[in-house]
Amino acid sequence: MSTQTLSPATRSSTEWTRVCALGDLEVERGRAALVDGDQVALFLLPDGSLHALDNHDPYSGANVISRGIVGTRGSRATVASPMYKQVFDLRSGTCVDPRGKEHRRLHVWPIEDRGGEVYLLRGGAR
Amino acid sequence: MSARIVVIGAGMVAHRFVDSLVTRAEEKLEVTVLGDESCHPYDRVGLTRFFDGATAEDLTLPATIFEDPRITLHSGDAATAIDREARTVTTAAGTVHPYDHLVLATGSYAARPPVQGAELDGCFVYRTLGDVEGLRAHVARRSAELSRPARGVVIGGGLLGLEAAGALQGMDAEATVVQSGDRLMSAQLDLPAGGVLQRLIEQRGIAVRTRSRTSAVLAGEDGEVRAVAFADGSEVEADVVVLTVGVRPRDELARAAGLDCHERGGVTIDAGCVTSDPAVLAIGEVASFDGQCVGLVAPGYAMAEVACDRILGGEATFGGYDLSAKLKLSGVEVASFGDAFATTPGALDVVYTDPVGGVHKKLVLSDDAKTLLGGMLVGDASAYGALRPLVGSALGADPAAYLLPADAAAPTAELPDEAVVCSCSSVTAGTIRDAVRVDGCTDPAEVTACTKAGATCGSCLVMVKSLVGTELTRMGRTVSTALCEHFELSRRQLFDAVRVSELTTFSAVIERFGRGRGCDICKPVLASILAVLTPSHVLDGENATLQDTNDHVMANMQKDGTYSVVPRMPGGEVTPEGLIVVGEVARDFGLYTKITGGQRVDMFGARLEELPLIWQRLVDAGFESGHAYGKSLRTVKSCVGSAWCRYGVLDSTGMAVRLELRYRGLRAPHKFKLGVSGCARECAEARGKDAGIIATAQGWNLYVGGNGGATPRHAELLAEGLDDDTLIRTLDRYFMYYIRTADKLQRTAPWLEALDGGIDGLREVVMEDSLGICADLDAAMDRHVEHYEDEWAATLADPAKLARFSSFVNAPTTPDPSLAYVPERGQVRPARPDERRSGEVLIAGTTLEVRR
């Protein structure tokens, strides 16, 4: 099926999926979600913004990003992997402190709050 | 119009070139990278890691640069022709790529010696991922067919040959290295150094034959490799042969295109890396500079930077090959640098040889014995980082001082600005100093990010750190005691600030004393401070967001993201009934079980969603959290003492239980441990603990500030002949004073070393109350004891806290599907990457399948 024939609106309504209620998330404490076999780390920040990234930590190979400490580096909201403490930007998924390793990044998923329900774009990792 | 750049070759040097180009170029570019291997560029230098379980993916160089829209990577499509008139490259698939600049980075191929049989199936070269995969499959097949370890012969005793021999050993194959010359690593080492290396290699079970010219590889009647024959008529049995006799530049495309090539191979380049055609550059092993091609990555990286600069209109020049190298071969350190063979007229050697210890070191000095020219280090290359940057400059100390055994501190001379500190990225000492002085970097990590020094192999990081520290001090900047970017205060200042202000939440503290929203450094520190000052559950309210995952789920994270569980066994005491419950829980949840060094039982492989189920059973049986996860009291180790031991003077186990129950759950700047011995024989090894208590006929002797681990230190005597109550009061004050005043993650040993007056100063504070704070310290400890509750029992009683133990918010009891285990010695362990790939994984998830 070609997605080019679909209007953006049709496309988004078919591919967005509900993952949980907003109330299931804690501010500044991640939760993992399982979407089509992909493990996604969900974060809710004090400003109400939502972020979804790979739960897979590229430095350790374990699915643990959702269990890291959330904070800031400068003006950027970040999460530190609980395994080897590399720090990732929650908005872009880029690694802002690779702890002497090479830079690797996390994929970022489009995520939305729709009236208290959290929706994720399936297969939308970028 | 944007410049079109075509790169032929997708190895490490090509990767570095493209990385530099996209980082530096501001103008429009179209970069096409043509690689004949059907994979992303990978770390060929690290190829041997493949045999330690690294996957092809682990070896892949960062692929993110290929996500840059200016770059197109065509893997698995080899370039077949260059048309210099039309300025195009044609590939095997027939695609034609036009270029404005062409960069040749085709590298080398591994040579096969012209001996009979070198083309047999069991002969391998050691160059590509395909080579090592083929080698491993062959060794596995032959070992299985022969029902014994395969016998491997490596022809070529250079550094690649020694790596290959180590790889064969890693596959449980026997290994023999054959060298036609008189010594191993003849390009880097002289005869004495090669001799020491040979003995070290032989001690590791690898046979070495020098002065052995191979005449043929012989096959048996079944067509399999059977033996290697030598010119003197002798033979060595072999089931597999690895050929590491050198590499040859892949210059065939360049020759066909009429570019000037050296008679011994390689595309001739000038100092700008430009070939005889100004539109074509060559870099890495294919490039011949000054009549020489070199198979090391560092000069290739240097050429990549030069070529990049030239294409961007710069004037950079390649300054010649730096053949310095430091390696570890089968655990043996070898380094060679500068004029290692003393070819400079009048050069002097200073040699230190210890044949028993297996160490050989040689420095080459100028005729006045003042300037360092080069050197060789075998067996202990720890001085390499300090010495190599000094090549060409004054040694500044007695040369012999650099050659003494490693535990003698090496002198440190001031490096000249032009000395190259990081040879991987060609960063000089001056560049590092500028990063501090001009660019404002304030720690080694920032300098690495800014200059790339130490980012590749990391062997120069110690040197970088020392340069940064010196430079900061020179600028009059004290090394900052700030906790992190969010707090200017040190941990001690922050503790006092929180205590005096009586703030009780992280948000209030950071708003008043810090900035931003904290990080993985300051949040756990604040959690610990708040836990001591305002006793409350670690998962209460906002506290939960401050905790590291270990404290958050009250278990210890392991490498695969599962946790280990440790119930408290005070003083190492456990009833038979308790032991049975622990065993049943471990069996029912499929947990790997091991006895810890702290006299209790650790159970590994518990998944997040299993932790409450496991703890419900443990709590029901009377166990409580062992705090193995916390920066808090771990264990009080003890010998059995006077209750059973015929030499015991006092009841050490009873005292250990009493102390463990008193200090359990007490949060501190770092973990702390105690030991109690029932007599002077010290079976509890108490003096290696933060507090060690040893029984004497006069009472308890108290030692403090001991440490095991990486920097062992014996505890020092604080007080002698104490009765039970005085011992406990003194310990209370010692710990509380440490908790109030130590730096972040500072254990008692370095804290005591840094404390004003050392052990005497501590004695004045906690025993003579010189600061008048003892009543305060006593009250703080009394409050801790009074408010202690078992964190796990409290968590099980609170549904809100239990919600945090779901594996997935939308599938709360589904196990992490990526977990995989293999059996080992009757239990399970996480599968290694190679086992996952080969499908040897027998158990996915630890439960059910291993229940019997």
From TrEMBL, chain A:
Family matches, as NCBIfam families: nirD_assim_sml (TIGR02378)
Keywords: 2Fe-2S, Iron, Iron-sulfur, Metal-binding, Nitrate assimilation, Oxidoreductase
Cross-referenced PROSITE patterns: NIRD, RIESKE
Name of the protein described by the UniProt record: Nitrite reductase small subunit NirD
Domain (Rieske): residue spans on this chain: 17-120
Species classification: Bacteria, Bacillati, Actinomycetota, Actinomycetes, Micrococcales
One family name in Pfam for this protein: Rieske_2
Entry-linked InterPro entries: NirD (IPR017881), Rieske-like_NirD (IPR012748), Rieske_2Fe-2S (IPR017941), Rieske_2Fe-2S_sf (IPR036922)
Gene3D superfamilies according to UniProt: Rieske [2Fe-2S] iron-sulphur domain
PANTHER family: NITRITE REDUCTASE (NADH) SMALL SUBUNIT, PTHR40562
Origin: domain of life: Bacteria
Automatic annotation (TrEMBL), chain B:
Record-linked Pfam families: Fer2_BFD, NIR_SIR, NIR_SIR_ferr, Pyr_redox_2
Stretches assigned to the BFD-like [2Fe-2S]-binding domain: 420-467
Residue ranges occupied by any Nitrite/sulphite reductase 4Fe-4S domain in the UniProt entry: 630-769
Pathway info: Nitrogen metabolism; nitrate reduction (assimilation)
Cofactor(s) of this protein: [4Fe-4S] cluster; FAD; siroheme; [2Fe-2S] cluster
SUPFAM superfamilies assigned: FAD/NAD(P)-binding domain, Nitrite and sulphite reductase 4Fe-4S domain-like, Nitrite/Sulfite reductase N-terminal domain-like
Top-rank lineage group of the source organism: Bacteria
Domain FAD/NAD(P)-binding: 4-291
Every Nitrite/Sulfite reductase ferredoxin-like domain range: 558-619
EC number in record: 1.8.7.1
Keywords: 2Fe-2S, 4Fe-4S, FAD, Flavoprotein, Heme, Iron, Iron-sulfur, Metal-binding, Nitrate assimilation, Oxidoreductase, Thioether bond
The UniProt record lists the keyword RNA-binding: no
Catalytic activity: hydrogen sulfide + 6 oxidized [2Fe-2S]-[ferredoxin] + 3 H2O = sulfite + 6 reduced [2Fe-2S]-[ferredoxin] + 7 H(+)
Family that this chain belongs to: Belongs to the nitrite and sulfite reductase 4Fe-4S domain family.
Function: Catalyzes the reduction of sulfite to sulfide, a step in the biosynthesis of sulfur-containing amino acids and cofactors.
NCBIfam families: nitri_red_nirB, PRK14989.1
Name by which UniProt lists this protein: assimilatory sulfite reductase (ferredoxin)
Protein source organism: Brachybacterium rhamnosum
Gene: nirB
